[in-house]
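Subject: sequence -> structure tokens, single chain

Hey, anyone have a minute? Need the predicted structure for the following. Not urgent.
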Amino acid sequence: MWTDLASAIITSVFTLVGVFIGAKLTNASSSRQEEKKILSEFYADVFIAYSNYVICQNNENIANILSACEKTKLLCSEKSAEVLNALAYAVTREHPVPHECKNIVDQLRNSAKDDVRNR
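Reply:
Had a minute. Here:
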């Protein structure tokens, strides 16, 4: 009788521990997925802002790029942050060089892919 009771208690404890661990793993996984989704949206905002800037290089579009870059730097890797800083500098120069901006955006695209994949 005591053996059956002890066996039932041990089984129950291990079951509860398993449920707890499973819940924690599920929560961590969903948190990573949410962070990945947010980071992807932040990068999309940068690319949209840059596309608008290419069409019309006015102060509003420059401000949109700068704010999108700053927002993205909250979650991105240091490598991507450096590329975002280069982009911000390139678009705020007195005479921006289109070819330089395009190269920086290409670098950012590759860095963004790495960031999202490695999240």
